[in-house]
Write a structure and sequence with these properties.
four-stranded mixed beta sheet; 42% helix; binds guanosine-5'-monophosphate
Length: 187
């Protein structure tokens, strides 16, 4: 399928809400949708590929990129830096594609507030905080301390979901994906 081009599709939500599963499904099914690969200073997880999930760089390199104005936005999330590079976005839009950003709530609001791009913002919410915590434990890729940090952060993020164009509860992954596809097809 294809969707309207020229858009930034911003997907946010707490870790464990299901953003990665949603984004990978959308990217494999929508021909003219590219993924904005963020830069981060956090350590690579064993199931991740450099340049595919993130570009993993040092704090020094990240600061150089800030100084060179290479980011559309950047934030510290859970103690690490994450930033959205501008250039790939410009390239995608030039080709008439849309581009999908999986970023945190602060990053999303700073892009939305600059008004430089046509954006559609979607917040994916877990059915409950308890369910979110269980999903994070099941992932087995984080320490208990990290899980608790993310649960605490999730409570704050959920409060800010009202600023998004769409808020979808991920009770069932297939239904959640279906709902988002319908939104994107209707643009
Ligand atoms: P994780 O470390 O679990 O992959 O991601 C942690 C959080 O950082 C997630 O909420 C993710 O959406 C967010 N994130 C990833 N890339 C960026 C980015 O470039 N900018 C911002 N602001 N947040 C990001």
């Amino acid at each position: 399928m294809t969707i309207k081009g020229g858009l930034l599709i911003i997907i946010s939500g707490p870790s464990g809400a299901g953003k990665s599963s949603v984004t990978s499904n959308l990217l494999s099914n929508i021909k003219n949708l590219d993924f904005s690969v963020s830069y981060t200073t956090r350590d690579k997880r064993s199931n991740e590929e450099d340049e595919e999930h993130y570009k993993f760089i040092s704090k020094e390199k990240f600061h150089e990129m800030i100084d060179e104005n290479l980011f559309l936005e950047y934030e510290t999330v859970h103690g690490n830096f994450y930033g959205t590079p501008i250039k790939p976005i410009q390239e995608s839009l030039k080709f008439g594609h849309s581009i999908l950003l999986d970023i945190d709530v602060q990053g999303a609001s700073s892009i939305i507030n600059t008004n430089h791009f046509d954006c559609v913002s979607i917040f994916i919410k877990p059915p409950s905080i308890e369910e979110l915590e269980e999903r994070l434990i099941e992932r087995k890729d984080m320490s208990d301390d990290d899980i608790q940090k993310r649960v605490k952060e999730a409570r704050k993020e959920i409060v800010q979901s009202k600023y998004f164009n769409h808020m979808i509860v991920n009770e069932n992954l297939d239904e959640c994906i279906d709902h988002i596809r319908k939104i994107l097809m209707g643009l």
